[in-house]
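Re: the 169-residue chain
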Amino acid sequence: MSHKRRIQLALILFASWIVITSVLLFYLGNRHYGTFASELPWQTTSISLQDLAITAFEPVQLVHVFDEYCACNIRARAHINKLNKNQATSGIGQHFVAPATLQALGFVLPATPAVLVFIDGQLIYAGPYASGVMCAVDDSFIVPILKQDVILPSLWLNGDTTACRCAMP
């Protein structure tokens, strides 16, 4: 085999490796990305902090819901850490609840990770933390609610947002 032929073969192998790796990374990176609740049902049974055995000392409570096997948890935890660093959650109660706990109470989320926002004991928001693949704080639904830049007149079950999510069985 000539030197020129070996170089051509090496370039073809390298280009093939780049294409295959890119496709694989794109697939793995985006397989959990989509509409939070698309066709999945929301259970609209009301739920309270008392149902969750949460004693509220602050007027605003965040209840984080994570399925332990969801690949999107890493992004949601990064979102929470950034919210905490930016002081967006100072003076706000934060709690972690398993999806099974909510299901046992009759409140079924279509996907996780999710956040429930309670203000003065009333659930006003349930859904993803943010829109977009990376769950960026800049695309956060939570910050405007916490800063009261957005006043929700009633419960917002946010299922139409595209985000990283793992559907619940």
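The mean pLDDT is 81.
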